[in-house]
Amino acid sequence: MALDNNFATNITNAVKSLVEADGLLDLSNVIYSATSEIGDFATKHNVITDVRNGKLVPIITLGNNYGALSADVGDCSMNTCDLNASYSTKKWLLGDYNCRVPICLKTYSEDFKLFWGMYNQTLESPLDEADKDAYIAFLTNIAQKNIQGALWRTGYWGDTTATTNALISKNNGIWTEADAGVGEKLEMEAGELIGEQVYNYLAQMYTSASNEDWFNESTAQFIVSRKMAKTLVTWLNSLSDKSMYNCDCIDPSKVVSSRVFGIDNLSIFGIPVVSHKESDEAGKVVSVTPDYRALLINKDNVLVGVNTTEHLDQFDIFYDKKDRKIYVDLAIQIGTAIPLDEYVYATQASA
Predict the structure, then answer these.
(1) Disulfide: which of 24, 119, 305, 321 matches 51 by Cβ 3.0-4.6 Å?
(2) What's the rounded Cα separation, in Å, for the pair 229 and 340?
(3) 72/79 Cα distance (integer angstroms)
(4) What is the pLDDT of residues 312-322, one digit of tens each?
């Protein structure tokens, strides 16, 4: 059975009968509890739709030509010159992930079906019943959260070399792409880092990138792990608490005021520092370490490819008369690409 959380059982354990629980069975009173909401993957990334596995990303490099335009030859003719550009490609690798959730209403208790307003299963589809909407909406909500979780997991931690891990083995995520490319690499020391160390590493990355022709302050971004961002923000706020007259003293007025620096609106050296709690939480599922990673890169050099046109997921719910089951099908195809080796990537030695 796909869902074994029988809410009606929990309710009737708290009261003597379903009559006493009548108020609790009003679905408008249901309160859903979650440790944290999963952010929408698509709104936070540069998503390319209608991507097919093996499709090529066209890359045109327009370099500065300081040798163009020769001196006038002194007559009516003109010098010839070339308008050249470098062409290259990168192949999309889409990972295919899916699952099917079978649901047999016969296995649910009458109390459960009463709670959700579901009729007994008949030869007709229970999805056609007039009051199936609350239960279907509940299943849809769970399915969408699962899809978002899978997108965050595969979008960042996908690794085709992890052949025994079915959760990430079909594509390369953003971190894997950065590690596999030939952009500049910076190795951070292993173990727990303090805020000042995080700052120093980001400063080193910024200095390295700012000396490169590709670096553009208006489009550059730091993509860092959530733990790395938290460590930096905590340290910056501790510095802000210090007195402007004596850095060894704490200014009480600053300590009790709102924090100056926050994780979700952080910039350093004028460059946005982007971190997502979802990517860190997804990494824990696949036991990926270390906790400190940072990528300094132009925004348009990080692409997420999907095979659909309007959305990232494939979701279907249907009833099979032969099996007498409701099926919920979930599927995604996702790939990431860093087309240009124009970035600075910092990770710990144990990565």
Answers:
(1) 305
(2) 25
(3) 7
(4) 667 888 888 88
